[in-house]
Structure formats: structure tokens, C-alpha cells
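Reopening this one. Same input as before:
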Amino acid sequence: MGFQWDDKYSTGNDIIDQQHKQIFAYLDELEDHIENGASQEWVETFMSAIGLFTRSHFCFEEMCMRKAKCDVASQNKVQHTKLLAAFSAAQQRFKNEGVTDELLSHLQKFLTSWLVNHIMKIDVHLNDCQE
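Same output, byte for byte:
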């Protein structure tokens, strides 16, 4: 298992925290498939699922930050846009190259690092913005 939820990741918004936990679960699933082998079909399904979930999560989180007048709301949106661009590039690379251990490892490390850093530097500010 890659990493576990810790209260230090809490945003003060139960829905956002549950969504973050789901993204952690996706990344744990990716790690399991890296260790045990991932088929082309599984990676296609995974990329689609985590992409859709993440876009939906970002929309909800951005709405919550705007509503709470959180001082990092615009920074949050910029970071989300950057992540989605990087994820789209990874999807394109996957389409061009197919499943490779290097691509899956890069994706897992990148997404895990991004998620933890983003939560700790941006999302936890919601704790100070709750209505």
C-alpha cells in the first residue's frame, strides 16, 4: 500500500476528504498493478476512471473554495489546470507507447507526489475558510 490517509491531509470538508481518500485508493490500485502486472485494457480503464473522477473532484473543490472565499482559490485552480495538462500528456504518451513499466512507475510517482504536495500546500487552507 502506497500511503495511508492521515489527519494532516484533512481539509475540514468531509466530502473533499472522502474524495481525496478515493484518489489515494486509485493510486494504491495502480501500485498493485505495477507490482503484479497491468494489461493495456486495465490501464485504459484506470486512466479513464481516475481522469473523470479527478476532473469532477477538482470542480467540486474549486466551487467549495470560491464559496468559502478561500484565499488560495485561484492558486488551486491554476494547480488543477497544470495537473490536468500533465495527465493529458501522460494519456497521450500511453496511447503512443502502450503499457510500459517506466510509464506506469512515472505516473504513480508523479500523481502521488502531486497529490500529497497539493493537499498539504493548497487544500488544507480550506480548514481556515470554512463557513
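So the earlier flakiness isn't reproducible anymore. For the record, DSSP finds four helices and no strands in the chain.
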